[in-house]
Amino acid sequence: MAEYDNSNIFAKILRGELPAQKVYEDEHTLGFLDIMPRAPGHTLIIPKRPARNLLDIEPESLAHVIKTAKKIAIAGKKAFNADGITMQQFNETAGGQVVFHLHVHIIPRHTGVQMKPAASVMEKPEVLAEHAKLLKEALA
Ligand code: 5GP
Questions:
Q1: Can you tell me which atom of ligand 1 is nearest the CA of 42?
Q2: Which of 4, 22, 32, 112 is most buried (most C-beta within 10 Å)?
């Protein structure tokens, strides 16, 4: 497996070199909106410690990510009046991973509504800003 490469997009977001609609942050994790959401409220949770994916992350760091994923799932269900939540996590290119800093997707779902294909439509910044606001209110 390749080494962790700190020039990936999510490492840049962590370092503040690229913008993101942040919805949650603590000592160990960051949650921000996916710019090409598969459904409204689609959030990515990442560890602050470098890890390429599930295959190399330290178990403690993974535990922090899962704790945050649960918080975001509950907030996403409330904020978007969702019927359910899809959690996804991909590992290596063959596993569907595109950005090589571990991330968990939390996607609010509604009965009978299909998700958009992955990374298909870039959302408008003002829509992402509104969705981030809803999530932050639900987390408060
Ligand atoms: P994966 O690696 O799990 O297949 O997917 C990477 C995810 O990152 C995709 O859902 C894609 O829409 C999202 N993504 C790609 N580039 C950016 C970016 O610059 N900012 C944000 N917030 N999300 C991104």
A1: 10
A2: 32
